[in-house]
Amino acid sequence: MSFPTTRPRRLRVSETMRKMARETRVAPENLVYPAFVVPGKGVAEPIPSMPGVSRYSADNLAEQARQIYNEGIGAMLVFGVPDKKDERASAAYDDDGIVQRAVRMIKEAEPNIVVVTDVCLCAYTSHGHCGVTDAAGAILNDPSLELLSKMALSHARAGADIVAPSDMMDGRVAAIRKALDEEGFTDRAILSYAAKYASCFYGPFRDAAHSAPSFGDRKTYQMDPANVREAIKEIALDIEEGADMVMVKPALPYLDVISKTREAFNVPIAAYQVSGEYSMIKAAAANGWLDEKRAMTESLTSIRRAGADIILTYFARDFARSL
Ligand code: PBG
Fold first, then answer.
1. Is the pTM here over 0.85, yes or no?
2. Residue 224 burial (CB < 10 Å; 0-12/13-18/19+)?
3. Could you confirm whether domain 25-322 is CATH 3.20.20.70?
4. Relative to the CA of 278, which ligand 1 atom is closest?
5. Which residues line ligand 1 (CB under 6 A)?
6. Please, are residues 265 and 244 in contact by the beta-carbon 8 Å criterion?
7. Residue 55, beta-bridge partner list
8. Which candidate in 189, 219, 262, 271 could, as Cys together with 162 as Cys, close a disulfide (CB 3.0–4.6 Å)?
9. Each residue of 174-192: pLDDT tens digit?
10. Residue 165, strand partner residues
């Protein structure tokens, strides 16, 4: 069957027809809003490299959580931006740390929102790497696992529903699962940043979280952007170790990775539309070069079409409000 009998344009004649034939939808409940928490009270500081995103103190973030949930968004991801950093990232696993306090306050203000916490040492180490280092600056895998497990455990004690390790150390999912189970947190899920690439698109985030490494780069632990078979291997390992959901990050430049992951695995797949992806659209829109709402909707739809169930995005609130 071909032209002139077959005419694909018949299904595009009106918006109602297009909506009926549409294959992919984005809903606020598929979205996770990433948020930054800082020490103090009453703080709301806009982040210059991420227009529309602010760092909040825990009290303000708890209030935001209520609004976010009321806008229809199901979950938020909490990042800590601590004022104290040291070699062992001790503020990361302090039961009275900023993330731990923020999680307790969010859960009190809005018990229904799913709280995801980022488990990584980079914002807490004096050198800004995601694991501990030796004197020569090498990032040590196995000694980092103990600290990451302690961090995940203290997030669970505070009430986190999902812990999301983003450090890319080998074996961290198994270590965290074991630590959680040993303390009775068998009901808390792990969303692993399983295929996380050494990407330049994290630039604005590192400003926001003050987490840029003071020496070297992250290429010995984050993945080479050229690799996709390796992503499948990383994801298989994390699922084997007990990850309940897996993430591909960044999202738009890695749609093929999302799509291959969808074909190969049956767990829920998350994709992170990272800070650089967000800020590029914001900057182009501010210059009048792109229609912001359409660029937001098209990019989120494409990420879903590639196979992501869940999208972590700084656009979550803008998108929910745009409906
Ligand atoms: C921490 C972490 C990063 C992001 C999420 N968790 C930064 C990095 O790895 O350098 C990036 C998020 C974004 O760019 O929006 N390891």
1. yes
2. exposed
3. yes
4. 15
5. 118, 120, 122, 130, 166, 202, 205-206, 211, 274-275
6. no
7. 36, 45
8. 189
9. 999 999 999 999 999 999 9
10. 119
